[in-house]
Amino acid sequence: MPFSAQPPASGERYALSASLDNARHLSSLLRAVHFQDHATCLATASGLRVTVEDAKCIQANAFIQAEIFQEFSVQEESVMFRISLSVLLDCLTIFGTSSVPGTSTALRMCYRGYGYPLTLFLEEGGVVTVCKINTQEPEELLDFDFCSTKVVNKIILQSEGLREAFAELDMTSEVLQITMSPDKPYFRLSTFGNAGSAHLDYPRDSDLIEAFHCNQTQTNRYKISLLKPSTKALALSCKVSIRTDAQGFLSLQYMIRNEDGQICFVEYYCCPDENITEAER
Amino acid sequence: MRFRAKIVDLACLNHFSRIINTIARLAKTCILRLTVCKLYFILSDKVANGGASMWCELSQGNFFDEFQLEGVAAEHNEIYLELVPENLSRALKTAQNAKAVKIKLTNKHCPCLRVAVELPSLSSSSRIVTHDIPVGVIPRRMWNDFREPSVPDFDVSIYLPVLKTMKSVVERMKNLSSVIVIEANLSGEMNLKIETDLVSVTTHFKDLGNPLWASEDGCQSSTQGRDLESMAEACIDIKKLQQLLAGQQVNPTKALCNIVRKRIVHFVLLHEEVSLQYFIPVIA
Description:
The structure holds two protein chains of two kinds. Chain A has five helices and 19 strands. The longest helix of chain A is centred in the middle third of the chain and has 9 residues. Chain A has two domains: about 120 residues, Proliferating Cell Nuclear Antigen, CATH 3.70.10.10; about 120 residues, Proliferating Cell Nuclear Antigen, CATH 3.70.10. The termini of chain A are far apart. By secondary structure, chain A is mainly beta. The N terminus and C terminus of chain A are likely disordered. Chain B is an alpha+beta fold. Chain B folds into two domains: about 140 residues, Proliferating Cell Nuclear Antigen (Box), CATH 3.70.10; about 120 residues, Proliferating Cell Nuclear Antigen (Box), CATH 3.70.10. In chain B, strand 2 and strand 3 form a beta hairpin. Chain B is elongated, with a radius of gyration of 21 Å. Chains A and B meet through helix 2 and strand 9 of A and helix 3 and strand 14 of B. Chain B: It is found in: Cytoplasm, Cytosol; Nucleus. Chain B: This is Checkpoint protein HUS1. Chain B: Belongs to the HUS1 family. Chain B: It comes from Chloropsis hardwickii.
């Protein structure tokens, strides 16, 4: 362990205890879902899931598997708490955000259980920072009930194909319209802003499309202000899967490779703003 | 009263600009004291500044190629001007590639520091950009208000940690709290702490070293009989500390602070040609 000031070990049973050699493996993923101040953390034997919601229609989850950590132990079946994500990120990046090659911040995280703060020990270059962040009662989370059997349309794309499109979305449009179809236009992103409508079509045989499974023509609109934060996850990712179900609920799953080449996932779920079953040309 | 100066060397000019930028971060308005050998930037501890004060001193010979000064009177060969350092900083921004910068005290309609920046030009005649910075002339009777502050009778004197690390930590802490506790002991240990309802964060620095100060009788201050482990702490406005650190664009040769517990923190930052002292009092 890289710390000279070691956290108490013997005799203390922590509900959650984890170590990470490079805190950026956690902080960069959390930034990809940081569109609200508060987040709900769920720790199970498989790892850590951090959930952020807004307006009861969008939910983002960041998954950091137990294997990413050097040490990860959860005492009960699961441990759940609500915490300020802004404060957590400020603490995780206390030594700065720039990634100077060769230097990294080591992290140890401890949580005693309900009512206790989340304690972080961060170390870089011999300097140790201890943070105690108050936790709150977890709130009920939305359940989009999105499972693979209910998926109507699915496209897997290389993220570079979508990055520019998302970065340049016409934010004067209230909605982002997504059309997915076995026929033309196959995959279309549309906005309707002050200057007019914009349509971006991806041909089915594009190199950027890794998998195309569209069974039904669907056109759905989503509030653009809710989806815009997903651009952060898109920027970090190498691949993205776009799926919709019969109600037009949208699932965006981002595959993210961290500095050490390990894979993590971030997903965004969004409710449709309007449901248009006829394809709009 | 006359003042004329000229900088021709680009490195000196850039260095001078960096110093002015640092001053501009620390004070909205300050006093510029001009003497034959030195320039001083002074901020006295009025309530308006939140009680912080500053004393920055540089030798004119290290920056200026020409320097002519005629003070208010023969026995008082100095000039005290009140100015907004940000104005001077902005004027010098146009001088990044200048051939020369001339500074002159003028009084056409009102007293001004005229900064004339000579820029390189393809034609035979130079391009000159002139900035007139309004200044207030401080009368002789008020000069006593701006004397060099004495080093306080401190409880602990300690070298600062690597400024880059200290800067990052304080910047993050500033997002979480408006005040910060700085504490240190005579064993080279310093802690920066913030505590709010939501979160508490403490950063521990070790092995910083404690400078030895020569006392008035010439002997070095002795640590005999003093408790080496006991911390002297002061709770100060975090924004002031962040501004001081953010203004340090180049690593100082020496950086230290003197803590008078529960009263004031005295920061001393020494570069080769310039010394800066900044006093931050505790939050009442």
